[in-house]
Here is the input.
Amino acid sequence: MTAAKRPAFTLVELLVVVAIVALLVAILAPALSSARALARAVVCQNNLHQLDQGFRAAASAATGDAVARTPYPGPGGWPATPMNVQKEPAIYKCPEDDILITGPEEYQLYCSIPDAYINFEPSYYCQVTVRDGTTRYAFEVYTAPDWNDAIFDVTHDTPQVATFSPDSHISPGVALRRHGKDIAGWEELSSAQFGKSIVMTGGLTNYGINARVGRHQVAPGTIVLLDYDERVAGDGEDVHQVLIDSARHLGRLNVLFSDQSVKKVWPFEIDPDVGPATADLWSP
Here is the structure.
């Protein structure tokens, strides 16, 4: 007695199943992608809300009364002020962007002799010494191995603060840069004051602060922070284009207003060039 044959799929049937599965994946993929994008937008909104809390906590600690004056610093104080309270680096990064929040390795010393960028890492031109609470980065601009041309002491705690050491012996043509761009106030180290500090991690945020926000009374609907390709927002003649280029969340931006609300908006809704109503969003 022979066993009965098992029913089996034919090649045509298998191809039909594969085609159906592929069709379903093609239909669902955009929806899944949009869902992930929306989830990242929510994380971004939460980041901005936490940054607002950081501003207010820092203001409260400084004044004893968070209501006494606006908690928002000028652009020069961003993001150092909230980093005194909100120390988690990921909060300063929009998840829709792929920049990395790291430390001093993002920074370089540019030297005219040799004509090169020298990283904050051990090399012939950079001597690294770990100390109690700080790491010393001593740079060699020429070729004599004394490593005292430009010296920075960087704290281990977050936020990492680099202080320009008075032990430095520098010459013209030495500048501090990040990704090849001069850092404001550090264009020429030869003119920098000893003891001057910079928040290393702070320069790596991809949120921009309103250039007009400062330590004075701010209207409730004023823009404070937003997704922006530059550290300072709304400062220049190309605001319209930068707003468009900065839109990360399905063509829109997340914006923190001074009334503590965070909203997702289209670039034209906050473009100061559109009209008086949108221009007022940028004015304290």
Observations:
- Residues 30-98+206-282 form one domain.
- The CA atoms of residues 168 and 259 lie 45 Å apart.
- The chain is about 25% helix and 20% strand.
- Residues 11-63 form the longest helix (53 residues).
